[in-house]
Amino acid sequence: MLGQKVKAVRIVASKRCVAALAALVLGATSGSCGMIQRLPAAPNAGLSVDVTDFAFWSPLNGLAFTASGAIITQDGGRRWQPVHAVDDPRLRPGISAGMPLARFVVEGRVLQTGTRAYRIKDGAWRPITGPPGQGVSALSFLSDSSAYAWSGGSFWTTSDGGGSWQSVSDLTHVPGLHMDSSTDGPFEGMLVDRLYGWMSSQFPPSQPAALFATTDGGRTWAPVTLQLAPGKAPDWLSTPRFFDSQRAVLYGYRAGAAAAGWAWTTSDRGRTWSAPIPLPAATFRASFADRLHWFVSAGARIFATGDGGATWSQLPRVATDWWELPIVFVDARHGFALVTSQDKKPSDPRAAGACCGPQQHHQLFATDDGGQTWRVSTTLPAPTPSPAR
């Protein structure tokens, strides 16, 4: 129930709830069955567009990928405008539908999407050349010129925005670090300054997830010891999310029959970490707005805490046809969710791609009240009618 403090939540769907969910996906507005109330778009607001990837770096500023290219907002998603295409044919809108991988860093001047990065130059997004190697598994930027990369089994740095790279250390000799054969590096990596950084690796089910830290700019790496629940080593771990110079949180989850999720906090720059804080769902869709306000999604459910995970509230359910709900909260009130709907009728067998089943659509929704209500965010200006001849 909305606002109820819970330690764990279990939902049993009824036929009435399923019908209400289908109606909401199709555009109906409903507050029944504990579902979220969508706010309708303004009349003649423009064209609603399919979104496959998105990133926000403040409550007002963000970017999204559509089938026609990138769009950008400066007012929290109320208005969007097309932006210059990146002059790199490898970058396509959306890497994987429903799996947002794009991130803006350095106040929106650098775009990181997947294992590639771009920066604004001469009014367009231009690719940053990566270090040599079989692939870049992780990138971290301190500024638009200072960056770090995990590639080719090594850790690299650049001070000229990717014009040249210098190898800092050989990662193949880090004890306990399991390399990803496809990219020769860890799953995630980040530095908070020129000395302190973290990287994580995960190889379930053969190896549990592991976290490593450096205090000398990546020259040496050491495993981080986290307190774990007995017999529940995580399959996946994030790198820390810092709120100031000392306080941060990281999270992880375990899949399978013993599925569970946890978070750990630090107040001494990662030298020590708290006991595991149980999350209300085993998921990698978590967003930490600040050190107290956290959000976790699991399917159509979103959970929120305002006390750093001591207690959780279940928010109204969001209508989505996908097994996960990507969310990003930039503060305690402003958040974004990528909602998936699926065509209810089979595709025309003569249409291209009909072999792959019903077509999915992805819309970006925004909330200004901490997830109580949502509005369609990605609406482009209506096209200007052609003058009569």
- Give the termini distance in whole angstroms: 59 Å
Kindly state the percentage of residues in helix: under 10%
Low-confidence stretches: 1-47, 88-101, 382-389
Main beta-sheet strand count, sense and barrel state: 5 strands, antiparallel
- Average pLDDT reading: 73
SS-derived structural category: mainly beta
Gross geometry: globular
Count of individual helical segments: 1
Q: Radius of gyration over alpha carbons?
A: 22 Å
Topology:
Blueprint: E1 5-6, H1 15-25, E2 37-39, E3 47-48, E4 51-56, E5 62-66, E6 69-73, E7 81-82, E8 102-105, E9 110-113, E10 116-121, E11 124-127, E12 136-141, E13 147-151, E14 154-158, E15 166-170, E16 188-191, E17 197-203, E18 207-214, E19 222-223, E20 236-237, E21 241-242, E22 248-254, E23 260-266, E24 277-278, E25 286-288, E26 294-298, E27 301-305, E28 312-314, E29 327-329, E30 335-342, E31 360-367, E32 373-376, E33 379-380
Parallel strand pairs: 2-32
Antiparallel strand pairs: 1-28, 3-33, 4-5, 5-6, 6-7, 8-9, 9-10, 10-11, 12-13, 13-14, 14-15, 16-17, 17-18, 18-19, 20-22, 21-22, 22-23, 23-24, 25-26, 26-27, 27-28, 29-30, 30-31, 31-32
Structural commentary:
The structure is a single chain. With 389 residues, the protein is mainly beta. The chain has one helix spanning 15-25; strands at residues 5-6, 37-39, 47-48, 51-56, 62-66, 69-73, 81-82, 102-105, 110-113, 116-121, 124-127, 136-141, 147-151, 154-158, 166-170, 188-191, 197-203, 207-214, 222-223, 236-237, 241-242, 248-254, 260-266, 277-278, 286-288, 294-298, 301-305, 312-314, 327-329, 335-342, 360-367, 373-376, 379-380. The strands form 8 sheets. Strands 1-28-27-26-25 form a 5-stranded antiparallel beta sheet, with no helix packed on it. The longest helix has 11 residues, at 15-25. It starts with a strand and ends in a 9-residue tail after the last strand. The relative contact order is 0.14. Mean pLDDT is 73; it is low at 1-47, 88-101 and 382-389.
